[in-house]
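Quick start: what a row looks like.
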Amino acid sequence: MLFRLSAYTGPPEFSQEDVQFLRTYASILGPVIDRLHKVHDLQVALDANKHLMQELQHRIANHIGIITSLVRMRAKETSSHEARQELTAVGERVETLRLVHQQLYAANTAERLRLRPYATQYVENLCHLHADQSGPVRLEIEIEEVDLGPDTAVPLGLILNVFTTNSLKYAFGGQGGVIAISVEAPEQSTFRVRLSDNGKGLPREPQAAKPGSGTGMRLIEALARQIGTKPHWSAAGESGTELCLVFTLR
């Protein structure tokens, strides 16, 4: 195969139209390339921020877990029955915060968490903790695949705590029973929550919470106000108690 080499005659000559075209092309291509570099830098920064936020959620959950352990350890050491009950209640409520951050960490986000695993894990923990008082309890959990922000998940989790704890401690008399949890989203951003048990039911004249105890219906009413709703109490069938909450996310 033969190759013919041609003599170099100098750089190619461009017409005025060629020069104008190249200048126009460069003026268009330059900002595009610059934007691509900026998008890459922004994506790197965003990934770094997500990693830092995820690590922050993990550390917060660990620190809250330490607080919960210290409170529970103190509850076991105290000789006062009332102090033990109060410390146990505080530990359970702090656990609500830990689970929120744990679920946010698992979801790799700081804004939303999936309600069903959060509520299920929380109530199962409460049933295990109060098993000696309640007897065997069956959970009936029907929660739609919905996500909530921490500002809603925390007070809702505390409402779950108060209702479930009271059911386990007072509704079943150590004979066991059923606790049902239902969460529906019939409309966008609207939620209907039903909590019920088949225990002794509400007294005809509900007793107020003990001074300083922070438990009972008044606490649930205060927590319900945080998510913009009011609690509605009723009998669950022939016996038992039902709490209904309907609220809209703002």
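That is the whole record. Helices lie at 16-77, 81-106, 115-129, 131-134, 150-171, 217-226. Residues 18-110 form one domain.
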